[in-house]
Amino acid sequence: MTFIDPSSSAEQLEDDKLKSSRRSSSSEDRQWGYDLYPQRRKKSTETHGITSLLDTKGQENISKIKCERTIYKCIKQSPIIKLMMGALKSSGCPVDIRRHISCEECAPTVSGGYDPILNQVVICQNSVHKIGHIQSVLLHEMIHMFDYCRHDLNFKNLDHLACTEIRAANLAHCSFLSAWTQGDVSVFNIKQAHGDCVKSKALSSILATRDVSTTEAIDAIERVFPKCYSDLEPIGRRIRRNSDDMFKAYTEGYYYGYDSS
Amino acid sequence: MTETSTENEEKAPTVEDEWMIRPCPVYDEEYKDCTSIKGRFHQYFVFGETLNCIPWKRDYDNCCRWRDNKDVKSAKEIVENEKARRRQRLEPHYGNDVWTRRKSPPENWNTPLPEHIQKEYEASYLNIKAKEMRGEIPTQVDPSNYCVLM
Questions:
Q1: B146 DSSP 8-state letter
Q2: Is the dihedral of CA A33, A38, A40, A42 positive or negative?
Q3: Is B104 exposed, middle or buried (0-12, 13-18, 19+ CB in 10 A)?
Q4: Is residue A22 part of a domain?
Q5: Is residue A13 part of a domain?
Q6: I need a labelling partner for A156 at 20 to 30 A (CA). Which of A8, A43, A56, A66 fits?
Q7: Domain boundary assignment for chain B
Q8: Where do Basic and acidic residues bias regions lie (chain A) (predicted)?
Q9: B4, pLDDT greater than 80
C-alpha cells in the first residue's frame, strides 16, 4: 500500500505537508490514497469531549511508544528485516530508523504504507500491535522501498505499482494458509495456486489505495505478472510459514552483497 | 588461481570462486527441507510440481569431500552448481524491464522532514534509539517493563 501527493513538483518536497494538503481536492486525495493517513496531512488538533473518555482517545502517545519499541525490536532481531536493511544499504539507500520509519494513527482499513514523497514507511499503531504483524508490514513496505531505491519506480504508473505489489505479495505473503482463508485455494485447486493468491493480494492492495477500476487493475497485474512474479530480489526465495526460510534468506544474502554490518 | 603444484605440500589447494562454497550443514539443511513433506507441499503449491533436490545432496557430499579431503574436483562441482543458482536467481531480476534501473539513489532519500514533524520526533523513542545506533549517545535504559499509570 502506498500513497502519494497529487502534485509532486520540486517545491512540494520543501513545502510543509500542511500547505500541500489544502491545495488538493478531496476527490484527488481519494484517488491517491492520501486520506488514509490523516496525521500526515496536518498537525493534530486535539478536541476532547466526554466521548473521548469512552473511546480510546488519549492513548496515542503510549501506542506510539509501544509501536516504536516493537519496530526497534524487529530491526535488531528479525533476520528478514536485517536482510532488507542490508540490501537497502548496499543499494546506496541506508535506512535511518527515525527518518525513514514512522508510527501513526491511520484509517482502520490499512495497517501500513509507504510515502515516496517524504520517503517514509508508515506503520499504523492503531491497527498493528503484535511483533509478527509489524514485521510483516515492515517487510512489505521495505520491498517497496527497495524497488524505489533501485529502479525508477513511479507510483502513478499503474504497471509499476502492480509490479511492486506483486513482488511484495509474492515474497512476504501468500502462505498456503492465507491463500486458503482468502479463498484462492480449495481442496481441488492447490496446484500452482500460489500465483492466484499473489494476484488477488496485489489487486486488493492496489484497490485499497488507488481509485482505479477493478478491470484496469487486473489488466495491469496480468500484464506485468510473468516478469514480476519471478523477480525475487533481495530475499531470493518465497518465504514459507513456520520454516527457517527467513534465517536461510538472511545468511544467503551475504553471498549477494546484502550486508548490514 | 587453480590447484597448486604438488611439490609444495604446505600450500592448501584453492579453487577459483571458493567463496561461493557455503558451510556444509547449509546444503544438508536445504536438502532436508527440499525433500520434507512441508517442503514438497510448498513446491506443489507454488510450481505445480516437485523440484529436483538432488543438486543439494550432491553439493553436501562434495562439500564434505572438500572440507575433509581438500578434493578440488568436488569443490569445482559445487562452484558450478552455485553459479547456476546465482544465474537462476538474478536473471529474472535483471530481466525485469517493467521499470528501468536507476543510475544513482533517489534524490529525496534523505531530504529533511518538514519542521513540525521533526519537532515531534525530537523526544521520540526511535530518535533516541537512532542516536544510540549512530553512537551519539550512550546506551539508555529502556523502562519497557514498568507499569504505565494512565
A1: S
A2: positive
A3: exposed
A4: no
A5: no
A6: A43
A7: 13-95
A8: 15-32
A9: no
Count of structural domains, chain A: 1
Higher pLDDT, A189 or A70: A70
Give me A149's grid cell.
531505491
At A58, is the pLDDT very low, low, confident or very high (cuts 50, 70, 90)? confident
Please tell me the distance from the alpha carbon of residue A247 to that of residue B77, in angstroms, as a whole number. 25
Helix (H, G, I), strand (E, B) or coil at B55: helix
Q: Which of A57, A231, A243, A252 would best serve as a mutation to test chain B binding (most B beta carbons within 10 A)?
A: A231
Q: Is the pLDDT of residue A61 over 70?
A: yes
What is the distance between the alpha carbons of residues A32 and A155, in angstroms, rounded to a whole number?
9
Read off the pLDDT of residues A150-188 as tens digits, 9 standing for 90 and up: 999 988 899 999 999 999 999 988 876 666 666 666 777
- Evaluate the omega torsion of the peptide bond into residue A234 and state whether it is cis, within 30 degrees of 0: yes
Better pLDDT: A4 or B77: B77
If one counts every other C-beta atom within 10 angstroms of the C-beta of residue A40, the result is: 24
Report CB contact under 8 Å: A176, B45: yes
CA-wise closest residue to A40 among A124, A128, A140, A109:
A124
Residue A4 lies in a domain: no
Inform me whether the C-beta atom of residue B96 falls under 8 Å from chain A C-beta atoms: yes
Q: Is residue A28 part of a domain?
A: no
Render pLDDT for B96-108 as a digit per residue (tens, 0 to 9): 999 999 999 999 8
For A155, the domain range is 56-254
Q: Which residues of A are tagged catalytic? A: 141
Give the strand pairing for A120-124 and A101-104: parallel
pTM summary value? 0.83
Collapsing DSSP to helix, strand or coil, A243 comes out as coil
Confidence of residue A110 (pLDDT cuts 50, 70, 90): confident
Buried b / exposed e over B21-36, threshold 16 CB at 10 Å, is bbebebbbbbbebbee
Burial of A107 (0-12, 13-18, 19+ CB in 10 A): middle
CA distance, residue B12 to nearest chain A CA (Å)? 23
Question: For chain A, what is the mean pLDDT?
Answer: 80
* First-to-final CA distance of chain B: 68
